[in-house]
Amino acid sequence: MSLQRSAAIMLRQFYLMRGSAARVVPLFAWVGVDIVLWGFMSRYLNGLTTAGLNFVPTLLGAVLLWDFFTRVMQGVTMTFFEDVWSRNFLNLFASPLRLSEYLAGLVMSSVVTSLVGLVFMLIIASVAFGLSFFSYGVVLIPALLVLFLFGIALGIAATGMVLRLGPASEWFVWPIPALIAPFAAVYYPLTTLPRWMQYVSRIIPPSYVFQNIRSVVHGGTVSWGPLVLGAVLALVYLVMASWFFSRMYRHGVRTGLIARYSSETLN
Amino acid sequence: MLTPSDPLQVLSVRGLRKMYGHNIAVDDVSFEVTSNEIVGLLGPNGAGKTTTINMVLGVLEPSAGDISIAGVGLAQNRSTALGCTNFAAVYAQLPGNLTVYQNLRVFGLIYGVKRLATRIDEVLQEFDLTRFRNTKCGVLSSGEQTRVSLAKAMLNRPRLLLLDEPTASLDPSTAQEVRAHIRKFATSGSGGVLWTSHNMYEVQEVCDRVLFLSRGKILLEGDPKRLPEEHGKASLEDLFIAVAREPLSLEVS
Question: By C-alpha distance, which of B96, B106, B101, B138 is closest to B120?
Answer without folding.
Answer: B101
